[in-house]
Amino acid sequence: MVARNPRYGDVVRSSFARQGLMAHLGAELTQVEPGSVEVRVRSRPELTQQHGFLHAGVTTSVVDSACGCAALSLMPAGSEVVSVEFKINLLAPARGHELVARGRVLRAGRTITVCQGDAYALTDEGEVHCATMTATMFRVEAPEPDGAA
Amino acid sequence: MVARNPRYGDVVRSSFARQGLMAHLGAELTQVEPGSVEVRVRSRPELTQQHGFLHAGVTTSVVDSACGCAALSLMPAGSEVVSVEFKINLLAPARGHELVARGRVLRAGRTITVCQGDAYALTDEGEVHCATMTATMFRVEAPEPDGAA
Amino acid sequence: MVARNPRYGDVVRSSFARQGLMAHLGAELTQVEPGSVEVRVRSRPELTQQHGFLHAGVTTSVVDSACGCAALSLMPAGSEVVSVEFKINLLAPARGHELVARGRVLRAGRTITVCQGDAYALTDEGEVHCATMTATMFRVEAPEPDGAA
Amino acid sequence: MVARNPRYGDVVRSSFARQGLMAHLGAELTQVEPGSVEVRVRSRPELTQQHGFLHAGVTTSVVDSACGCAALSLMPAGSEVVSVEFKINLLAPARGHELVARGRVLRAGRTITVCQGDAYALTDEGEVHCATMTATMFRVEAPEPDGAA
């Protein structure tokens, strides 16, 4: 896949950095390629569900962000991205010390981009595939920065 | 809908209280009826996406928890609930000062319960329907408490 | 909900009539209101799955068509509709002599319309809610008819 | 992946053959491996949507059947499979002379199996990836055959 915006990396990192939730969860953007993004989050008690594993909402949040960033990486300059919908299947409990979310673009259209995302729990026994998502992302024209008009 | 466990309210409140993420997001369980649960979360900068609205991951987390609790409220004593999958459509930006998530059971089976969840943003102009979810929940036998065997 | 195109009924009926699959399944468009459409199909051996009930694919096909038609009914003249995605939960076996699918618009945007669809099996004991769908529909400009340019 | 039932091929072929809808659509089971199944259907006017491409309902029906058969291929003897839910993203119009649906198991549990399915349109220019599905399948004990009790 080829990025149309040569500054796609800066655009994605800036968008991720403005997501207050990612900082609140302690999630980090660890890889950005055209059409492919990785986000990681470390397990801690504030992120759990009732059995002590990572809450499905945490898994979903970071996979959604990875998918949105993957979509954004292929969009022309001046674009922003919003989630239209996503569906996630939780394949295994998200136990372990860290969760790795990977989002990649399946199809990039003019307004709609479809992504697949997967989450892997890093345990002492290796990576466990714990969730898979498909997401529909929508491109919106970014508002002009102040003074640009 | 009729609860099979007369202590369903305690079971649901205890399950919600053990979800570390709910406290971390500042979400509160505000209503529990058989097959129907309400969760609320106030907007704040730690919960936003890149445009300053509530992150889709927050909306999803609280609607998922509302659905899981609604499913649990109809299960027999000694049950726990895990999410198998869910899908959410984001209908409008989650702006406003508070988000109300409502989960209700569509069909309660022996092992599988299907729920519908909706999220409403409370704004100065009134409630805005900002997301709708369908979720599949799975019943698991709770492990015996310590010493019970 | 208010139709922007006063000829919405003709537009929907014409779109449905051009869907070869609907005739092949024996499905009929039985109601068209702005933002709300009903489709019915009678049970017969050609439409079954391996246990003799209506195949999930039939249920999905008619609910998808009902949702697409509901979305189309609110679009301006000169629009066509395509399905971006849908998700269906199968709540109960589709037994009985007839299936009624109802689609309605949850949110109509300029390019994206989100619909909810439900299917009910008509049995000797009454209506059984057997499936629920959420669908994302996309508006495309219809090509000009021959000679119009 | 390893089949627990050495007769998995017969079980899958028999289940597919009893699906009246597959014959009505002209779909054929073209490959059965443990945890992986292929179904094909040729394009014809009876299977179209309003623009002359294969109807999303046809694509969904054959991908759902491929996923259900893939799930069944890994189940122990005496099992049957029903669809709990599925979600499909339609990536491109299903044009071309034939559609190939491939279903494979992502995770096989004791009662729940999660599958991924994909559909490819065969055109003169090659394969086009036109849809992707995730599906949740449920295992039920098959009723004893007549006289077995």
From TrEMBL, chains A, B, C, D:
The keyword Acetylation does not apply. Residues 51-124 form the Thioesterase domain. InterPro entries: ACOT13, HotDog_dom_sf, PAAI_dom, Thioestr_dom. Keywords: Hydrolase. GO terms for molecular function: fatty acyl-CoA hydrolase activity. It comes from the Bacteria. Pfam families: 4HBT. PANTHER family: ACYL-COENZYME A THIOESTERASE 13, THIOESTERASE SUPERFAMILY MEMBER-RELATED. Belongs to the thioesterase PaaI family. This is Uncharacterized protein (TIGR00369 family). It comes from Kineococcus xinjiangensis.
